[in-house]
Amino acid sequence: MKSIVAKALFNSHSYAEYRKLVTDLLTEGKSTGNEQSESLTNYSKLNEARMNRLEKTIKISETVAEKLQNLDNHYIWLVLSEGWCGDAAQILPILDKMAHASNKRVDLRIALRDENDDLMNQYLTNGGRAIPKVIIICKEAGIVRADWGPRPKGASELMATHKREVGAIDEKIKTDLQLWYLADKGISTQEELLEIMENIKYNRL
What we know:
The protein is α+β, with helices and mostly antiparallel strands.
């Protein structure tokens, strides 16, 4: 497992590098990932606009920042993502702001899912390769302590309810999910990740 994580880290990107990679590919009419299609490229374009907006609007509370700055160790948040993923576009700007607010206690790194099959297969969600997936690594010990994702609990429950009632992921649930993120303002992601970090700090995980 350590070698799989090490490989992903070696090939990972900073948030700024990831943003540039996605943007550069879009200028070529491409998206990240093994599969290329017009729809995936269009999703990537839409996500660019979302991330640009979120970078300007997402706020990290003083309480969250203070708790991140008082973590017991330094951590890497290694995130499996792709540019076409709508959930990743909603969540990555929040993670970036949390990492900046942590006063270097958290180092955010992003690895492409399709380039890291071995790692992705260790963190499946209900048997699927759902992203983003945040893998929390203690730098000092060099071990994985926890993981989170692919989306906050409220968003996951919304998706699960729709699947039970409709049996498929359609345009309505995609719209409803984006409205959920808009109303949530990144608060659930911050709270859930902070709870995990606090549990690690106090050895509850």
